[in-house]
Amino acid sequence: MTILMANLCPSIKMLYYKLFNVDVGLWVFLIVNLPDFRLAQIMIFAIEEINRSEMLLPNVSIGYQIYDTCSSRMSSMSATMGLMNGPEFAAGETCNGQSSIHAIIGETESSATVILSRTTGPFKIPVISHTASCECLSNRKDHPSFFRTISSDYHQSRALAYIVKHLGWSWVGAVNSDNDYGNYGMAIFLNTAQKEGICVEYSEKFYRTEPEKLKKVVDTIKKGTTKVIVAFVSFIEMGLLIDQLNILNITGLQIIGVEGWITSKSLITPKSFQVMGGSLGFALRKINLEGFSDYVVKAFWETAFPCTQIKENSSQYVINCSRYQDLLALKNYNEDVPEQRYSSHVYKAVYAVAHSLHSLLKCKEQEGCEKGLTIQPQQKPSSICSESCLPGTRKAAQKGRPVCCYDCIPCAEGEISNETGNLTQCPGEYWSNAEKNKCVLKAVEFLSFTEVMGIVLVFFSLFGAGLTVLVAILFYRMRDTPIVKANNSELSFLLLFSLTLCFLCSLTFIGQPNEWSCMLRHTAFGITFVLCISCLLGKTIVVLMAFKATLPGSNVMKWFGPAQQRLSVVAFTLIQVLICVLWLTISPPFPHKNMKYFKEKIILECSLGSTISFWAVLGYIGLLAVLCFILAFLARTLPDNFNEAKFITFSMLIFCAVWITFIPAYVSSPGKFTVAVEIFAILASSFGLLFCIFAPKCYIILLKPYQNTKKHMMGKNIF
Fold it and tell me: Which domain does 313 fall in, by range?
């Protein structure tokens, strides 16, 4: 069994014809292009190697035909039609219309391969290309029988964008060949570059037969501001572009290239090095094929120099080939002979056909590239539209320009930017520092014992408590005098005790809030003040009842004696205790971090929990205070030398005034000043009660003791 293979080469400039086991021995010598000659020889080498193998395709011989397309699409089409139609003259007794070609290796260029694949596709003739990398050929609908041994440009195009970003370039230019290879490859690069945040200053294209477009491309590069150019062009277009850049002396460029030209030594000259020196790109892996070097040297030597080898049994004249020849004498000699990057792909293409026929084709997953490559800054030029923003500043887009062009403005409060230039919002409990390059913990604010305001309030609280204790001691020492015994001394001592608690409860409002202090401060305040006002209310009722008792036939005092007075105080206080217990049970106060008043700091405060319960406590205190004020106001003119009613009236007037002004001040004061206002209200009302109720009595006891007698107590207008 014999299998026939075809190979289409772009510019070998020679034709070798071999059909099955018939050696025609015909050589037509024109101009030798060594790289393309090498690709043709690698196919022959692989086919002969397979034909000698006993393991692969045993009893099957592979033949081949090689056509020169002269880098022309028309020639490629003509060769393709010739392959499918078969030879014009065929030896043999029978002929049929079926094509004798089972597989085609080629073409080299993507555009020519597209034509070839679309022509052979309807006939299911497989085409295996070793260099056609255009992504368009991956479309199975348009190219159902196309295969290749080189990767698609989809991967290379994306990799070009990734390497540009890895090197820190965000402002590049783009040039591509105006054919399928360049257009599809550049489209993928531009799409990936946009996703990666890379800005493209210009994107130009030209073809080898369009000098005007080439001139436009060179002018664009010359006028552009970017120093990095991504050149997705073929080998021929790259040579033309470099020549023009050399002529105009356009240097200092960093060119990012593709596998089509990046490893070509023929493009490197002393002049072109100024343009493309330091170019980067992705190259195909070199693979040495055992035995091929000797094979191709022998074939090249016999082809390049004027010597012809025919069969030894032929009677024709034989010109012996010399071992020593001058390679420089060859016209268009190309020294890229050692380049073996594409050779292995031709070799693999032939073996792919063989293995597919043998049903042994297996795909081995390739390993990825090494990661973590670090490029030193001195090895690469800078190509950006705008410099990276310094820490503490952020990017502000320039109107009408790409996203890579921006101004750097200071970050707003609560925002930072680090070395990468990324804007970051500080988390809830953090705030930006002065340099706007780091998030730091927000300052925590609460009324502490160490600050001036806290010290002053603590002083007045302790001073009030101490003063109340001194009054209690004075009253205890003078407990047998008429002025102390008057109007129920028990209520007076209970009132002094409750006032002491009122002064001391203000201390619970100072310091860092915690769970226990939050529950204690409001409940202690509510209960102690109710106890205090209950005592005053009891004393006021005693005054009224005492006046009523002096009337003929009155018997009211027996209904409001000492026992009833104590019971009334306990009853009024228990109601407030019940309200506080319900408050602590249902929704107690708790420590809270308030970040609404100030963005740059955290206010540590006690949340009320149940707002209704808080206002119920205040409302009950206010109700008792108003009731006490009304009763005291009614009793202020009663005929008694030691009438406490008017002093209770003044004290309740001060108390109500303080707490009425407290409400708007409490609501409008921010942060720790809210606590300070509440403490001030507690201390002011406590001092008001202490001075209004007990100052007149202390004045008599200490400064006018002669009036502290029963006789004077029964007199008129002492006060």
Answer: 2-150+289-358
